[in-house]
Amino acid sequence: MKRVWIPLLVAAALALLAPAAQAADLATLAEAINDWQLDEARAELEALEAEGDPSAELLHQTGRYYFHAGQYKTALDALDQALLRVEDPRDRARYEQTRALVQSTYDVTKDYKEFRSPNGYFVIRIQPGKDEVLLPYAFETLEAAYLNLGQDFGYKPPAPVLVEIYPEPATLAAVSGLTELEIKTSGTIALCSYNRLMFTSPKALLKGYTWRDTLSHEFAHLAITQRSRNSVPIWMHEGLAKYEERRWRGGGDSDHLLSPSSENLLAKGVKENKLITFAEMHPSMAKLPSQEATALAFAEVYTVMEYLERQRGPDAFAQLLTAMRETGDPEQAISRVMGQPFPAFLKGWNAYLRARPTRAFDEGFVFVERLEFADGKKESELLEIGQKEARDYIHLGELLQARKRLQAAVEEYEKARALVGDRNPILQTRLGRTLLTLGDAPEAVDVLKRSLEYYPTYFNTHLLLGEGYLALKDYPQAEAHLIEAVGINPFDPAVHEGLTRLYQATSRPELAQRASEHARRVGGGPR
Questions:
Q1: Closest CA to 122 of 62, 196, 180, 61
Q2: Does 237 reside within a domain?
Q3: Residue 435 contacts by C-beta under 8 Å, 6 or more apart in sequence?
Q4: 313 lies in which domain range?
Q5: 92 plus 194 within the same structural domain
Q6: Cα Rg for the chain, rounded, in angstroms?
Q7: Are 516 and 124 in contact (CB under 8 A)?
Q8: What is the pLDDT of residues 387-436, one digit of tens each?
Q9: Residue 517 domain-assigned?
């Protein structure tokens, strides 16, 4: 009898335990997908599929897996099967929500072209057309970020990493869960979500933006999420990504640099005791009420990581991510890395923040840098200059410049400069262009460099400096500024035309041909 009943009892027990075991396995699968551990998720998925007829929840998780893997049509097929089998209304609502996001993403990207980076680490999906000029520069940025951030974080994501470039903010809203209003209010033009980089083309903004640094920033988020198993809070996430976003550049003091305008916001926030709290940054910087609030929050968390690295050295971030993966608790992780309680770390950072040298602008001369969306209300940038008398002089200078009365235009611009100084890029670029047209490249370069110190991401300054250095036959400086201009607004034909002349002058025919093709693609041509 024992030989008969014991196996039957065991079989009965296993039958009772099977649903609970499968539920536990499904939870493990869901957690792996949430943490963007797709290799682990794939192994769990295959083990569950081997058990036979899949449940509705397994099909739902299968759809989520393929969505995070960037295979949207396969994801939709699995989700449709899940909806055919689901019985619980709450589960149905959850499945339908997942499917709606996947469908929206599929609809947006189904006609995109796909390109793989030279080393195979990245795949970019992009709308055919003008945006293709981004590709060589995007791949250069991402491959450098893969190596340099990998060194700092002690981790390199499994390849290939998926990147999608969208033509406008409305497209980003359709695939992200954010509203278009939230995107424009906060200045959010890129995200890292669902195990991919999601990125708005700089052609969607009137003056572009530092899109290459932004690509690196979003890649940092992906590496942080994977390395930490999605355990890093938003303030730490953004601090690490902001501090590391320029590391793709590959060395020197410019690897970690807070823009002067951000330094000014930080100095003002400290002075007025109006800093953004870590709690206010949750659940996303994109939820903050203005672009200024967002920029201030980024500046604050940048200094947290600056302080951490200066206290603990170049391995601090790798140690921090390891500690986050193991503890899941930011206070414990920082305490472990710093060797002191978290409140002591916060006290030290606050003292560091208030003692840290910051560049504050004279409020009378400050030029506020904002992202301007191409589909928004277009106003003259002269309105950014607070003094009406200075605006009038600049406007008169523009009229004279248009009528080829160049020396008279210079005189009007100089009158404005006497009022607002030589830091304002709106004025300095107009004056610099006029001087270049007059053939005075040395003076033009000097004029342009004065505002660049304070506003290093103003596109026209770099474009005109490139032209000025070309005229002076200082080709290394010309190339540096023209490439910087590409990293802000690659949709101005003039920057590619300048690069064409530069590469021709320095006997680089392949690059000259590429630059010439880019100029034609974005609407220009050889001069």
A1: 196
A2: yes
A3: 410, 441, 443, 444, 447
A4: 113-355
A5: no
A6: 27
A7: no
A8: 889 999 999 999 999 999 999 999 999 999 999 888 899 999 999 999 99
A9: no
